[in-house]
Write a structure and sequence with these properties.
Elements (H helix, E strand, L loop, with lengths): L2 H10 L8 E2 L8 E6 L2 E6 L6 E3 L4 E3 L2 E2 L4 E3 L21 E3 L3 E5 L20 H4 L9 H15 L3 E5 L10 H14 L5 E4 L7 H9 L3 E3 L7 H7 L8 H15 L4 E7 L5 H14 L1 E7 L7 H4 L8 H17 L11 H4 L11
Parallel strand pairs: 9-10, 10-11, 11-12, 12-13, 13-14
Antiparallel strand pairs: 1-2, 2-3, 2-7, 4-5, 5-6, 8-9
The structure holds iron/sulfur cluster.
InterPro entries: Aldolase_TIM (IPR013785), Elp3/MiaA/NifB-like_rSAM (IPR006638), F420 (IPR034405), rSAM (IPR007197), rSAM_MSMEG0568 (IPR016779), rSAM_sf (IPR058240)
Keywords: 4Fe-4S, Iron, Iron-sulfur, Metal-binding, S-adenosyl-L-methionine
Pfam family, one: Radical_SAM
């Protein structure tokens, strides 16, 4: 598949609904998951797209695009329930063909309308009844065991809404990792949270068994941060630097990552220069096109649209080249979004 077709698909999305799909939630969502040319691909679902997923192929204007498409079947663990009757599907979801992902706390102190990240829909999936507010560690362990046994899951991602505590939610993440590792010790787990006030919590996460960590800033441009994520922007960029440095010390080079969104109005060259600095520190910049998702303020209030394809391609190519030069690939991470790669085009570029 050419990079520009993959970029077009990432931006325009497709019509249709693959068996593995998600609606609202933390991070990019409202998408359908396929394996395209052997790589996980999370494609936005968009009723206005010229691309169509017809059940087995991806068509453009009615013609087969010739993409090598593997459909991911609905996983068997979705049909199980906890002893209390909670469907496993509400506790964790399959992303791509082999990633189990959960949001351990589905609420966020930053979700007030004047504070929330304008691209985010973390509490919408809670409101719709698609998930539960707080996941119990023992329940997640049960789900992880079943997902590995029945569906061949090879890694797990645990993210969290930000809590009011100084740990920013990391301590509940640590409890969840401990429970999962006690049940499925060989399953690599990535945790994701804001920079904790007390950096020692990063060691607690590692000692709990986490294999990798994502500390996501989304933009390195303070003006963009204030406009798009007023709540998160109250955490200064230097706090992220301190947390990334400590995380690289604890987890190792290339086991730490951050999302960088393309399409929030930042300068592309500044974004690439910032990514180069992160790579130098040993942090993998997971470059992801901004996805306008229903239910977010970006769509419902700002009427924001997907970024320009040429900019996404340029940034992705240049960051992929920098990553390759540094010998850092997503696939070398033990777990996490960069290891999955579905929401980005970096893996298709060899990074
Ligand atoms: S890149 Fe992350 S958010 Fe996207 S599908 Fe993969 S695990 Fe999920």
């Amino acid at each position: 598949m050419s990079v520009s077709t993959r970029v077009d698909l990432a931006l325009l999305g497709f019509r249709g609904r693959p068996p593995v799909s998600r609606s609202a939630g933390a991070g990019p969502s409202a998408d359908g998951h396929l394996v395209i040319d052997g790589i996980n691909a999370a494609i936005p679902r968009n009723d206005d797209s010229p691309f169509v997923f017809d059940g087995t192929r991806v068509l453009l204007d009615g013609q087969d695009t010739g993409l090598d498409v593997e459909v991911i079947e609905r996983p068997a663990f979705y049909d199980l329930r906890t002893a209390d009757g909670v469907p496993y599907e509400k506790l964790a979801r399959l992303h791509g063909r082999n990633v189990l992902a959960t949001t351990v706390v589905q609420t966020c102190i930053r979700y007030a309308p004047d504070q929330r990240c304008r691209f985010c829909t973390i509490e919408e999936s809670l409101r719709s009844g698609a998930t539960t507010a707080v996941k119990r560690p023992t329940d997640l362990a049960e789900v992880a065991e079943a997902a590995v046994r029945l569906d061949g899951v090879t890694q797990m991602i645990m993210t969290t809404g930000t809590s009011a505590g100084t740990d920013r939610g990391a301590r509940h993440l640590a409890r969840c990792v401990r429970a999962v590792k006690a049940t499925v010790p060989t399953l690599p787990v990535q945790v994701q949270c804001e920079p904790p006030a007390d950096l020692a919590v990063i060691t607690e996460l590692r000692e709990a068994g986490a294999d990798a960590i994502g500390i996501h800033i989304e933009s390195l441009d303070d003006e963009v941060r204030r406009r798009w994520m007023p709540g998160k922007a109250t955490v200064p960029i230097h706090r992220y630097h301190e947390a990334w440095r400590e995380a690289v010390r604890v987890f190792g080079r290339n086991q730490v990552s951050t999302y960088l969104l393309v399409g929030l109005g930042e300068d592309a060259d500044a974004l690439i220069a910032g990514a180069a600095e992160l790579i130098e520190m040993g942090v993998y910049p997971f470059v992801v096109p901004f996805r306008p998702q229903p239910g977010s303020l970006a769509v419902d209030v700002d009427r924001a649209t997907a970024p320009d394809a040429a900019v996404v391609e340029k940034v992705s190519r240049e960051v992929a080249a920098l990553l390759s030069l540094a010998g850092m690939t997503g696939a070398d991470q033990r777990a996490g979004c960069a290891a999955c790669g579905a929401c980005s085009v970096l893996q298709g570029l060899g990074a």
